[in-house]
Amino acid sequence: MAAKRGATDENLTHRRDALDLEGIILAGGLGTRLSDAVPGLPKPMVPVAGRPFLSLLLDYLDGAGFSHVILSVGHLAETIISHFGDRHGHIELEYAVESSPLGTGGAVLHAMARCRDDSFFVINGDTFLALDYTAMQTRHLASGADFTMAARDVADVSRYGRIVLTDGRPSCMEEKSAVGPGLVNAGVYIFERRFFAGLISDTPSSLERDIIAPRLPRVSSGIFATTGYFIDIGIPADYLRAQTELFRSWA
Asked: How do residues 2-23 score in pLDDT, each as one tens digit?
């Protein structure tokens, strides 16, 4: 069954009338935890109900109003490049190819040189989140924040780490030792280019641990909370769950 494209949390309606949005998709991971289940494929290309997961994600972003996406690729990059080429639906695609692994932080710094705007989304390439991207950008721009993070309430934060809020803003990202319900990072951000001032491109780093966490006390930040469907296919159990659940949740 073909997936409908959309952008709202609860009712995923077509949004090609929305603002033209721009983003980076982090699609260069090794996918070691999925290698036994789907050997020989980069993690974003693993099949979900017969289609590459990244194709489903791009479908959704197309409907949400994206016009330009930079795919940050590394491991088996040619598999992704040859499959998608330079366009997916209404989206113009570019590629930022890592010559050596840069981690999520280094990958963003490497790819953002291709961004045309000072504000841009960063999206994990192994996570699906039903999100109103236009509403998130509108709120972010109105707030004047340096970055805004999409957040999702979950029953158990132990897999993700908990976001701690102070006066409604993220003040700390706890390690994964925390347990129980709470708010977690849902793998979608909006950054202003100035957020990365002074950082060196092409240096391996973690976006969350090495870049965001140390800067939280001294930048203006925001949270965009959502109740939309959320799944991370990075482990075999959730990858198998996505085969049917993803379609049931947004078809």
From this structure: 333 333 333 344 454 556 899 9
CB 35 within 8 A of CB 8: no
Euclidean distance between the first and final Cα of the chain, in Å?
A: 8
- What total of structural domains would you count in the chain? 1
CB contact set of 224 (below 8 Å; sequence gap of 6+) = 131, 135, 136, 139, 140, 148, 149, 150, 151
The reply to whether 9 falls in a domain is: no
Q: Domain of 187: which CATH number?
A: 3.90.550.10
Structural domain range at position 42:
21-250
Global pTM reads 0.89
| 16 is a domain residue | no
Q: What is the tens place of the pLDDT at every residue in 130-152?
A: 999 999 999 999 999 999 999 99
